[in-house]
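Before relying on records like the one below, remember that each one covers exactly one chain. Contacts with other chains, cofactors or solvent are not represented anywhere in the record.
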Amino acid sequence: MKTEPVRGTESPLAEREDAVAAATGLLERLAQRLGGSVSVSTVFGTPVEASGVIVVPVARIAFGFGGGAGRERDAAKHGEGGGGGGGASATPIGFIEIREGAATYKPIRDVWTDVFVPLGLVLLGTVGPRAVAGVLRRRRARRS
């Protein structure tokens, strides 16, 4: 017959071990649930066929999660603990086009990355040196 310790008489080491076991159990359950929802169809969508061309959507999937645990501090049932949460993100990044037996990956382009960032860098490269030179001229003029 297994005997349970009287509440409030557990050693600090036993309390820490209980908290670690609770946190580990929680994280294992979260991982099992998330792992069960991840499959190839999560990243590669359902193929669509039209006019002899098959298109397979492709997405970037990201999962993150965290957990927590708690413990009872004393016999008066005062406790402490913490919690956690998780999230997932799916972003379309392109598609695979299968035409006449040949597969081709076609990325989905982002206007900000492909147009505005390079344009901003060119503008910065053009205007930046002139702005720095103007600031340096003003500083020299103040010292004179």
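The chain has two domains: 1-108, 110-144.
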